[in-house]
Amino acid sequence: MKTPEPSFENPSALDSLDSSQQARFTPRQSRVLDALVSVGGWVSREDVDRIAGASNGPQIILELRRKVAGHDGIEMQRAEATDRDGKACKPGRYRLTSQGRQRVQQALRLVEEPA
User: Fold this and answer.
1) % pLDDT > 70, the chain
2) Is 84 part of any domain?
3) The domain containing residue 32 runs over which residues?
C-alpha cells in the first residue's frame, strides 16, 4: 500500500471541520473549555489537569486548538514561580486569545442550536 503524501495545507481549526465535528467535545474538553471561557484570564496547567480530571492537560489543550480554537486561539505562557523545594520553576498556563474566544463562542452556539 502506498503511503499518502503529507499535506502542507494549514487551514484554521474552524475551516477544517464541518459543523457536526465542531460540536463534539469530550467531557474533559468541555470542562476545560468552560473554564477557559468563564475565567477570562490565565488557567494554570495544574488547574487544567484538575478541571479535566486527568493529568494530560497539554494534550487536552492541543485537542481544543485542533478542534475549535486554532493554534493562535489558546495562548500558553511560562510563568515564574517557586516550587515546594524553594527552586525556581516555570509552570505553564493557558488563556483564550480574542480570536480563540470568538471561535469558541461560535462553536458553542452551534452546539446549542437544535438539529
Assistant:
1) 76
2) no
3) 19-79+89-112
